[in-house]
Amino acid sequence: MSPNWSAPNRSTSGPVGIGSVQPSPLLRDSGNAIAPAHQDHLFAARAVGDVCQRFFDFAGQLIHSDLDIQVVGIDPNVLGTIPCQIGVAGGERKHAAIRAAISGGWVNVIITDVTMAARCSMSVSRHASQPSRFASLRYRGGCHRS
């Protein structure tokens, strides 16, 4: 059995959490955080976040680590074939990870809090002249209910 899901993908959307390298106190206290030695390696490689335990740098570029062979999850190349990749994350602590996940094409839809949405929207404005994944990101300005 392969540790990665690499079968042909027929999914049209996929919700994923966007994590930061530094675990939250709750995650750390639960014992489900990655080991400090792995964190040190990821920090040394300039990792800022992860999607599905696949870590990336500030530009959203994949960082390979020893964790790759330990993760049972979707292969990054398969994840990239899903048309609607929905990232879920919020809070100031995850700003760099959210921004990098968008820049690197890990997600193309974000569910986040108002503060992070506004900060990401400002990033869209600053990068409007550059072709990037920010081009399709739009801030809707608050909560909308249907």
Structure description:
The strands form 2 sheets. A 5-stranded mixed β-sheet has the order 4-3-2-6-7. A two-stranded parallel sheet has the order 1-5. A hairpin with a 2-residue loop joins strand 3 (47-51) and strand 4. With 146 residues, the protein is of the alpha/beta class. The model is unreliable at 1-5, 127-136 and 139-146 (pLDDT under 50). Helix content is 28%, strand content 20%. The chain contains 5 helices and 7 strands.
Average pLDDT, to the nearest integer? 80
| Major β-sheet annotation | 5 strands, mixed
Helix content: 25-40%
Order of helices and strands: EEHHEEEHEHEH
Q: Compute the number of helices.
A: 5
Strand content: 15-25%
- Unreliable stretches: 1-5, 127-136, 139-146
CA-atom Rg in angstroms: 15 Å
Secondary structure layout plus pairing:
Blueprint: E1 4-5, E2 13-20, H1 25-30, H2 36-44, E3 47-51, E4 54-57, E5 73-74, H3 76-79, E6 84-88, H4 95-103, E7 109-111, H5 114-126
Parallel strand pairs: 1-5, 2-6, 6-7
Antiparallel strand pairs: 2-3, 3-4
